[in-house]
Design a protein that fits this description.
rod-shaped; mainly alpha
Length: about 110
């Protein structure tokens, strides 16, 4: 189902050899991806705590649905965060292997 939605499926293909600056940019992108996953996790945990707090308010029993909705949204956020993290990680590793193979092939032809 998620594949049909085509969320976050932009694929970048680089035909040139990459230099040190590009490797460093890829490392920054990896770190940003991890930081984003941690932000999704933090948001999800806070929403779970908020949902539990709403469920504990006995004087406001008419808004108990808000607690359940917050808990469901927190599960949605953690799943979305994990999905995006894995997808970007796969894309970056594919980009690394393609460029390492491309750079290795060019280096071997230059040595000959």
């Amino acid at each position: 189902m998620l594949r049909r939605l085509k969320l976050f499926n932009d694929v970048f293909k680089n035909k040139e050899t990459i230099i040190l600056r590009d490797y460093l940019a890829l490392e920054r992108t990896k770190l940003a991806n991890e930081r984003t996953l941690l932000a999704y996790t933090r948001t999800s945990l806070y929403m779970i705590l908020g949902g539990i707090a709403f469920l504990q308010l006995h004087d406001f029993s008419q808004i108990f649905w808000l607690g359940y909705m917050t808990i469901v949204l927190s599960v949605f956020f953690i799943i979305l965060g994990l999905y995006r993290y894995v997808q970007i990680r796969k894309r970056l590793s594919r980009y690394y292997t393609e460029n390492l193979n491309l750079n290795g092939a060019e280096a071997s032809t230059e040595q000959q």
